Every structure is written in C-alpha cells, then in structure tokens.
Amino acid sequence: MITFRHPGTVLTDRFFAVPLDHQRPDGEQIEVFAREVVAADKAGADLPWLLFLQGGPGFGAQRPEGRNSWLNRALEDYRVLLLDQRGTGRSSPANRKTLDRLAAAGPQAQASYLTHFRADSIVLDAELIRRELTDEPWSVLGQSFGGMCAVTYLSFAPHGVREAFITGGLPGLTATPDDVYRHTYRTVAGKNAAHYERYPQDADMARRVADYLDTREVRLPDGAPLTVRAFQSAGMMLGQADGSDALHYLLEDPFAGDELSDVFLYAMMNQLSFASGPLYALLHEACYAQGCATRWAAERIRAEFAEFDPEASPLYFTGEMIYPWMIDADPVLRPLRQAAGILAERDDWPPLYDPSRLAANEVPAAAAVYYNDMYVDRELSMRTARAIRGLRTWVTSEYEHDGLRVSDGAVLDRLIGMVRGNI
Question: How far is Cα 74 from Cα 53, in angstroms, rounded to an integer?
C-alpha cells in the first residue's frame, strides 16, 4: 500500500485480487484498485466506511484533490473508498490491447470475457473487498450507474450494506433497453428544444455544420470519421448542469474560413472518443439487459423519433445512446466490433435486481431523483422507488444529473439527513 497526503486528507492506494468469474472463484484472477480517503485530522479514528460507486459504466472513480465536491461532506463522517470498478482506472484493464490476447480464440472469447464486467460482478467484488477491510456492513453511495449497482447490492448482498445513498441512479427494475430509450429519447428532445429556446442562433449554425458534413468526408484528428450522426452525438453534454452552455460554445465558431476549424475538430474528437472508457460503449446497453438481447436498442428505437433524423430542421442532438457505427468509427473500439455484435445478440443475461428482495428491504436508503434527468428516466426511477421498501426519495429540479458533483456536498448532506430521519 502507498499512502500520501493532500490538503486536509490522507490517501491510501489499495489493490485487491478477485475472480474474473465469481462462479469460478479458483479460476482466473483480476486486480481491482481502490483509493481510501480520510480526513487528515481523523486518520487514526475508527470511522465507518463509505464505498463510492462511480457512474458509467466503464469509468474509474474520481481522482480527488483535497476535500473537493461531495467528498468534503462525506469525510465529516466516513472513511471513503473510491472504487475503480473492474476493468477501469488502475484495476486490471479491459480494452482492445488487453483483449488482444484473446484474439486468437476469436471474438466469442472476447465477448464472453466482457460479460463479467456488469453490476452483478462489481457488487461481488465489493463484498470481497468489504470483508478484507471490515467485519461490519458499510455505507454505499452510488452515482448514476453506481446507483444501479447499489440497487443490485440491495438485491443480492444487503447484509453487506449499512445504508445506501443513490443519486440519479434508480434503474427500472424490469425495464428493457427498448423501454429505457423510449423514455430517454423524449427527454433528450425536450433538452434540444430548451437549448434552441435559450440559444436560437445555434439552430442555423448546427444546420450549417450538418450540411457541410453531409457533402464532404471529414476526419477527426484520431482518424475517426465525423459524420452528421457523429456530430449529433455531441448532445450527450446536454444532461449536465452546464451542458447547454458548453454546446453553445462548441457551436459558437466552428469554422475557419470555409472549413471546420482545428479547434472544433479536436473538441469533437474529445466528445466522441471512448479512449478513456471503452467499456462504456461496449457494455452500455448490456447494463440494462436482463434475459433479453439488446440488439442495438438505441439505434432501433431512434427510428420511432423522426425529430432526430439527420436531415430534420432544427437539427436535434442525441443523448446517452450508443450506436453500432460508433464501434466501427472509433479506433479504440474497432478491433472489438465483432465482440460488441455478439454482446448485442446475447439473450440470456442474468438478472441484475431481485424485486421480491427489494420489496422486503430493511436497509435504510435514500435517493435523489432529478426531475429533468436526461440519462436516468424519472418515471422509471419513481416506479423503482415505490418498489423498494423503506426507500426515501427526494425529487428535485434544482440540479441536473451531475448534482452530486456540483452541489458542493448539499445533495449528499440531504440524503444523509433523510436516512438518519433528520429530514
């Protein structure tokens, strides 16, 4: 273990060995990294643990700088463990380079390997880690996909959870990927309408960029093609607190003379590349799948929403949707395109939630549901809230999906107060 200090905190890096397949505990092992963070003036105290489950899927936990964001509130009461979920961050990576070792065995072997990187496996990792660190149940904070993992935790290992805090991450317990996208496309359409009402001049500029791309072959600096559909996917940012403003600045001056500027092309590359989180693209739809094939649900359901047609005016941007062309276009995903196709056709995904166990839940829990959430549908979240016994819910339009990060601890503080009966 390596221990170091930041202003106001002491951090310790930890590594844990876990089985790739928890059904075969003596089989292949992988490594999971987690970073312990404790307030400097409480480093020697006997504090309860708080496990943080990051949003995603496919991204490592935040890299803290002192007591920033929600961490400041958490460190008042807890010793925090920031988990790099399996396959992410400093945990054993799962990407085109590491999966190349399975290339000789074929894409089916790569796809089979990737099936072990969903919420069910993440929760079993967490339980092994918890038992190494403490004999007591621990508190769990789940943001977005991490909240979905927290509900999986309450379903299959509630004995390991002392209390649960969920922010923008209550999943539809029985919702199919098709259900999810039918809800979220409607929300994304509303975000587009609100954006153009705020910045009406952006409609003409977005159309101008789209028309330019429609008549030329444009490549991003990493070699990926920039098509109209790729340009539309910049709407992913619209669900963040400053997302509409960021999109406006992207559209403010995209041309250098008669061509798209380097500044714009590099900005689009950063928006479109999955280099920092390939599992996000490869497993995004699979994180909703239970006993059904996803079959590229976002692509199929998009056809039901004519407002997202690339030739529509105004041009509507898409949201948190993964399309098959993304796998072919991105250099970091292209070598895994056959494996991605196999995952999309898999129809025997195991359950991620246990509705009967959740209906009998005894773990104190509270959830923030963001009224205008573009990524996790409010209606599906509220159905789940009613299905989890004892869950207290705070529905708010004060924050967008990133409320935990931008609220300077206020969202977490409210949930802690709700669980403790103070609010």
Answer: 14
Element of type H or E holding 246: helix 243-252
Q: Identify the active-site residue in 41, 204, 347, 348.
A: 348
**Average pLDDT value for residue range 160-177:** 98
Q: Give the pLDDT band (50/70/90) at residue 299.
A: very high
Element housing 394 (H / E): strand 392-396
Catalytic annotation on 144?
yes
Report residue 363 as tokens. 């773990």
Q: Whole-model pTM above 0.90? A: yes
Report whether the peptide linkage leading into residue 254 is cis, meaning its omega lies within 30 degrees of zero.
Answer: no
**pLDDT tens, position by position, 184-203:** 999 999 999 999 999 999 99
Phi, psi of 216 (to 5 degrees): -145, 155
Give the pLDDT of residue 167.
98
- Residue 401 C-beta-side C-alpha neighbours within 13 Å: 27
Tokens of 166: 């969920």
Q: Which of 401, 402, 407, 413 is catalytic?
A: 401
- Residue 43 sits at the vertex; the CA angle it makes with 42 and 44, to the nearest 5 degrees, is 95
Query: 32 pairs with which residues across the strands?
Result: 16
- In sequence order, the 6+-apart residues with CB closer than 8 A to the CB of 156 are 120, 123, 354, 357
| 123 neighbors 357 (Cβ within 8 angstroms) | no
The active-site residue, picked from 69, 91, 139, 144, is 144
- 401 in active site: yes
Per-residue tokens: 298: 């976002």
**C-beta of residue 385 within 8 angstroms of C-beta of residue 43:** no
Tokens of 23: 């059904």
| CA gyration radius, the chain | 21
DSSP per-residue codes, 117-142: -SHHHHHHHHHHHHHHH-SS-EEEEE
CA dihedral 212, 216, 221, 222 (to 10 degrees): 120
Report the C-alpha gap between 129 and 123 in whole angstroms: 10
Number of H helices, E strands in the chain: 17, 11
pLDDT number for residue 110: 97
- Identity of the amino acid at 419: V
* Element holding 299 (H helix, E strand): helix 297-302
**How far is residue 49's CA from residue 22's CA, in Å, rounded to a whole number?**
24
* Residue 204 designated active-site: no
* Other beta carbons within 10 Å of 366: 23
